[in-house]
Amino acid sequence: MSLSNPFIVGSGLPVPPPLWPRAIPTARIETDADALRIAQDLAVHLKQNAAAREQSNVFPLEELDLYSTSGLWGITVPRSHGGAGVSYSTLGKVVQTIAAADGALAQIAQNHWAAVAVITSCGTDSQKEELFGLILEGKRCGNAFSERGNKTLTDLKTQLVREGEHVIITGKKYYCTGALAADLVPIVAVDDQGVAWLAIADRDTQGLTVLNDWSAFGQRQTGSGTVLLENVRVPLTRVLPAWKAYLPENPRPDSAISQFIQASIDGGIAQGALEDTISFVKTRTRAWIDSHQDHAYEDPYTRHILGGLFARLSACRALLDVAGQTIDTAVARPTPTSVAAAQIATAEAKIFTTELALDATNKLFELAGTAATDTRYNLDRYWRNARTHTLHDPVRWKYAIVGDYYLNGTFPPLHAWS
């Protein structure tokens, strides 16, 4: 494989925009039940070659096309604009299902759904009509949010300047999951007052360059690298007041939605690891000599540990369902109280999914044994993916905001990581 191929993970090369229209038209999903069924069918296909795909070190564009044309990326578009408007509990199940098959593919869609949430909460009617229409046609959103080297995550340097009927954006972004294969790139930039806006640029806009320089040891095929912005022109009709979602007196549940999807990914990675643990223990692992059993799956200590892990997985699913229901309430009736409740329910779920993802992906090797470390199985991808993805934001702060909420009635901070 040539090192000049821009789709090689970590090549550092600029990547061309994806082809449009897709070779296969994007399906339109209409119900929650259809979304769950399609996700299950797709996950079976994606898992078949997941281990080899990750080892190939190439961005999974073919699988991503299959995922996005399935219609799943449009399921949170409101019914009033032609989408399925599924519940967030359903979205959580969809994300978990895909993440159990392939954690990286599941994460690529995360910022797309987060963008849909911002459009829903902050867009004008005309913006919703245009952008939701494009999304239902199959256009994918990536992201150009975070930056490296700043004092904090919210200390942004990317500038937005108005010029006639456009804004001009200059800056450099990193951790840009989804931008590599996006059709639309939502860019967070600040004006001269330091207020953050979301400008949604076409991927082929002049001055917008995506580099495939993501080099982490986990979630390798997310393509979460650099976006360069050199005098990028975005029409005012594509600029949304994202700051409105975080007004203390009138917040929207955008932060809870973003965190909820992250927690669902971690729950899915844990599920995938446990499924492969079961498979390996039942087919390859030898019984320990002192167990006096013929098969590893008869070992009482193995059964005890797996029983605990699966019980925690069920708890994670239940907490994610509660969080999804609480988010639905906040979307329908956004108030400081309902938004805070959604943030807290999501934080509780994220605590459990983070810790289970790390524990389950580690226990895989303890229970499956030394044979499981053979690189041909590539089972270490589960731990690498869990360890990398759970660093999105520190779960220790989730404990803090949950405790402060119940002890002192303090609402969580209003930003995208809370």
From TrEMBL:
GO BP field: L-leucine catabolic process
A GO MF term: 3-methylbutanoyl-CoA dehydrogenase activity
Coiled-coil positions: none
Location of the Acyl-CoA dehydrogenase/oxidase N-terminal domain: 45-138
Entry keyword set: Oxidoreductase
Pfam families named in the record: Acyl-CoA_dh_2 (PF08028), Acyl-CoA_dh_N (PF02771)
InterPro entries, per database record: Acyl-CoA_DH_C, Acyl-CoA_Oxase/DH_mid-dom_sf, AcylCo_DH-like_C, AcylCoA_DH/ox_N, AcylCoA_DH/ox_N_sf, AcylCoA_DH/oxidase_NM_dom_sf, S04_starv_induced_SfnB
Protein name, UniProt field: Acyl-CoA dehydrogenase
Phylogenetic placement of the source organism: Bacteria, Pseudomonadati, Pseudomonadota, Alphaproteobacteria, Acetobacterales
